[in-house]
Amino acid sequence: MSESTVTTPARPSAKPRKVPRIVILGGGSVGLYSARRLRRRLGNREAAIVVVDPRPYMTYAPFLPEAAAGSIDARHVVAPHRRALKGIDALQGKVSAIKHAERTVEITPEEGDPYWITYDHLIVGLGSVARTLPIPGLAEQAIGFKNVEEAIAVRNHVLGRIDRASSTWDADLRKRMLTFTFVGGGFAGVEAIAEVEDMARDAIKQYKSLDAEDLRFVLVEGSRRILPEVSEELGGYTLEQLRKRGIEVFLSTFLNSCVDGHVVLSDGTEFDSETIVWTAGVKANPVLQNSDLPLDRIGRVIALPTLQIADAEGNVVPDAYAAGDCAAVPDLTNPGQFCPPNAQHAIRQANHLADNLARVLRSAEPTDYSHKNIGAVASLGMYKGVAQFMGRIKVRGFLAWVMHRTYHVMAMPTWNRKISIMAGWTANLLWRREVVPLGSIHDPRAEFRAASVPPKPKPAPAEDHSPVPSTEATPSASA
Ligand SMILES: Cc1cc2nc3c(=O)[nH]c(=O)nc-3n(C[C@H](O)[C@H](O)[C@H](O)COP(=O)(O)OP(=O)(O)OC[C@H]3O[C@@H](n4cnc5c(N)ncnc54)[C@H](O)[C@@H]3O)c2cc1C
């Protein structure tokens, strides 16, 4: 990135810039799509664009369950910033503070001291984090399912447990290893458990000492139904399908504790499980608390339908825009409600936001964002799915699964990734997906560490008090 972008370490210079600088916080769905659209709308002489994210890539989260199940190569569900953001500066680091009044943000890089950068216009697309609860054992035992690193870890962990369970005769340990618990029955949780169970069932066929009946998958949901994003009927159908596959679904039930992998549910059920995946909702990125931007009571940036940030009275905060999971954007098709946190809205809002910012820079009026939810598609494992369109059209099974794949592959950014994903699917049809655990990638230095430990000095030979001379006792020693 250009030298002039970074002010080290302190405040903005008062010197006016020749080209206005747009800083985009977060390089996810909102960040990547708004940056690309802005670059298309505005020439290099009209605006400099900088995207800030600790990761060098955008993750297309709707494909995470398939990445965990090995139906898609994990590398293909991410779009690398350096490749996807042509003509845009990508800055790797975490935003740690926002002072919009001074038009500065603080960046904390992975290594080195934090520094400040200045801007003329701000786009906030910082997304969300897992909404956790202070449940005993949760922080120590559970893993989230929000990013590609977690999806790969869940895959390797599940396949690794199956591998280890096949080599143990301890029945209790085996049961504990083969019990997989998912908490949260929304889209992410249902797709994750359905895809991972499908993969595990596939994998277990390779083990003579294990049987599909040895696998136990448990879904815990606090409300009285799963998949609140689709109709009761389709949610009910999905529940029926999961139960038919042997997945135990606990409704209106909460996780009370999971200390050392001992799961206790609110209805009194108890069991041991070495795998606990937390998919029970999201909350706006907490770094927003360290900003002077107006937030609502659940920590989202307050936005107008134009995607401009506004104060609690609805007055526009100049030069500031927000969209996606971290923003409270009024849903004009559903008066009194806000747009739900999903990729369908995030990507559309990003494009609309970019168009509005380009309009404002050219002294035109911004327009309102309005999008009627077109429906929802969910994959439930190989060749299984559910879909609902326009509120009325419901599709199940193979056709819904094809629709899921088609819709999401088209939404995946860059043709390079779309083609790679489709090529992977075709290869899986011919050779079946790979179900080998690569658990050691999570600690690749373990073997080298063990090899590098100097050998322990041998204990000195004990004093020989025997009446027979030692050379005679060990004839080979003298040979
Ligand atoms: C498992 C799963 C399945 C899903 N399935 C669907 C689906 O089928 N359909 C659907 O419509 N939606 C789905 N979603 C939701 C959808 O992915 C999100 O709503 C969407 O990605 C939100 O976009 P965003 O840009 O607001 O956030 P994100 O795409 O999450 O981007 C936020 C970005 O901010 C970055 N960031 C975080 N902290 C900082 C910081 N301090 N400084 C700088 N950058 C930071 C992150 O690295 C990330 O790149 C799913 C989500 C998950 C987790």
* Termini separation: 73 Å
Write down the CATH class of the largest domain.
Alpha Beta
Low-confidence runs? 1-12, 466-479
Please tell me how large the radius of gyration is: 27 Å
| Overall geometry | globular
Beta strand count: 27
Give the number of helices: 14
| Class computed from helices, strands and strand pairing | alpha/beta
Total number of domains: 2
Q: Tell me what the CATH architecture of the largest domain is.
A: 3-Layer(bba) Sandwich
Unique ligands: flavin-adenine dinucleotide
Strand order of the largest sheet: 6-3-2-10-23-22
Average per-residue pLDDT, rounded, comes to 88
Strand portion: 15-25%
Major sheet attributes: 6 strands, mixed
Would you give the CATH topology of the largest domain?
FAD/NAD(P)-binding domain
- Overall helicity: 25-40%
Ordered list of secondary-structure elements with their pairings:
Layout: E1 6-7, E2 21-25, H1 29-41, E3 48-53, E4 57-59, H2 64-68, E5 78-80, H3 81-84, E6 89-92, E7 94-99, E8 104-108, E9 115-118, E10 121-124, E11 128-130, H4 138-141, E12 142-144, H5 148-165, H6 171-177, E13 179-183, H7 187-204, E14 216-220, H8 232-244, E15 248-250, E16 255-257, E17 262-265, E18 270-272, E19 275-278, E20 282-284, E21 301-302, E22 308-310, E23 316-322, E24 327-328, H9 343-361, E25 375-379, E26 385-389, E27 393-396, H10 398-411, H11 415-431, H12 446-452, H13 470-473, H14 475-478
Parallel strand pairs: 2-3, 2-10, 3-6, 10-23, 12-19, 13-14, 13-19, 14-15, 21-24
Antiparallel strand pairs: 1-9, 4-5, 7-8, 8-9, 11-20, 16-17, 17-18, 22-23, 25-26, 26-27
Helix pairs in contact: 1-9, 5-6, 5-7
Bound molecules: flavin-adenine dinucleotide (FAD).
The site of flavin-adenine dinucleotide has 35 residues, from helix 1, strand 3, helix 2, strand 7 and helix 7.
Family: Belongs to the NADH dehydrogenase family.
Domain FAD/NAD(P)-binding: 21-350
Enzyme class: oxidoreductase
